[in-house]
């Protein structure tokens, strides 16, 4: 599944706030570089948390943050101004346009303009090539939280219907086709085990399916890992020794039971997502105590191991032949 995902040009990552979507987006980008591709992360959040994580200033153009890895912040107004710079002749005329009250009002009031320009920037970057760096390029979009993302992803279709065969309408049609082309674009959901995240993941998956943008996979983040089972807990409570107090053992046993219950609840949640969405669910382990680039690298390494395991059956089949 991961190899199939990495075959796309654009990965749009969405999920409920707080599920680790931004870190997972960065880990997917790092995974892409491990597979030999160049990756560009486009973060929707104007506060630019990933720019802070990588120690660079927010930028509206791609900025290298690691080997074969670039980062930029999506901004509708900046994207519109970049577009106008390419079509309006003369610096003085362009300056007059940007300074005019009519332009300022238009940018603030035009419904959905910023969202459309953000998607247009994704479309533009997806079509860019670099002769000096011929490696395949993958764009990872750290989209807004699910509810806002739904409005964002619906925008091209609405704009196409509104503007018809105009320049804006044609561009909206191009963006819409890119997002619906499952050979080039994949939507990926991120969730955790809490009930609100699970409900929102299932509801968003259904809503996306209705507009022909069904996600290709769900990444289940922070999966609890237990190195023990119920028998180990029973053995712990029955231990005897001069320095072992029954009260302490019982306390440890309760903590261990709580962890087992968390893992069991997570497995039930994964099963529910699989049934409700009909799609694959990929697990990402919980990494307590890690944050920032260290956490990104750890998740990327975990995903890389999973990707290599996907290759093993094919490699064995080729060896048999």
Secondary structure: number of strands: 8
Compute the CA-based radius of gyration: 23 Å
Class per helix and strand makeup: alpha/beta
Strand arrangement in the largest pleated sheet = 3-4-2-5-1-6-7-8
Q: Could you characterize the architecture of this molecule?
A:
It is built from 13 helices and 8 strands. By secondary structure, it is of the alpha/beta class. Helix 10 packs parallel to helix 12 and helix 11 runs antiparallel to helix 12. The radius of gyration is 23 Å and the shape is elongated.
Write the layout of secondary structure elements.
Elements: H1 2-6, E1 10-15, H2 21-34, E2 38-43, H3 49-54, E3 63-66, E4 69-73, H4 76-87, H5 91-99, H6 101-109, H7 113-126, E5 137-145, H8 146-163, H9 167-180, E6 185-191, H10 195-210, E7 217-223, H11 230-237, H12 246-277, E8 281-285, H13 292-320
Parallel strand pairs: 1-5, 1-6, 2-4, 2-5, 6-7, 7-8
Antiparallel strand pairs: 3-4
């Amino acid at each position: 599944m991961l190899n199939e995902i990495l075959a796309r040009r654009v990965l749009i990552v969405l999920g409920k706030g707080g599920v680790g979507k931004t870190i997972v987006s960065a880990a997917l980008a790092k995974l892409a570089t491990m597979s030999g591709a160049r990756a560009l992360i486009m973060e929707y959040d104007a506060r630019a948390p990933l720019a802070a994580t990588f120690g660079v200033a927010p930028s509206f153009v791609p900025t290298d943050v690691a080997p074969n890895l670039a980062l930029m912040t999506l901004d509708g107004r900046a994207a519109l101004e970049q577009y106008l710079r390419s079509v309006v002749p003369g610096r003085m005329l362009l300056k007059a346009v940007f300074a005019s009250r009519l332009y300022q009002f238009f940018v603030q009031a035009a419904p959905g303009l910023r969202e459309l320009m953000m998607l247009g920037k994704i479309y533009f970057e997806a079509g860019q090539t670099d002769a000096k760096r011929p490696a395949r390029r993958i764009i990872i979009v750290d989209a807004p939280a699910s509810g806002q993302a739904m409005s964002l992803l619906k925008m091209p279709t609405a704009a196409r219907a509104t503007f018809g065969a105009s320049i804006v309408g044609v561009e909206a049609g191009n963006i819409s086709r890119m997002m619906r082309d499952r050979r080039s674009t994949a939507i990926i959901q991120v969730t955790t085990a809490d009930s609100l995240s699970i409900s929102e993941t299932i509801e968003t998956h259904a809503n996306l399916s209705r507009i022909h943008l069904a996600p290709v996979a769900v990444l289940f983040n922070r999966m609890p890992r237990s190195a023990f089972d119920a028998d180990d807990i029973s053995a712990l409570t029955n231990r005897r020794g001069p320095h072992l107090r029954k009260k302490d053992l019982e306390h440890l046993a309760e903590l261990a039971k709580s962890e087992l219950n968390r893992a069991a609840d997570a497995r039930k949640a994964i099963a529910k997502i699989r049934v409700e969405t009909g799609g694959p669910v990929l697990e990402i382990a919980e990494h307590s105590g890690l944050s920032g680039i260290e956490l990104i690298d750890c998740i990327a390494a975990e995903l890389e191991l999973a990707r290599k395991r996907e290759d093993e059956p094919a490699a064995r089949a080729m060896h048999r032949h």
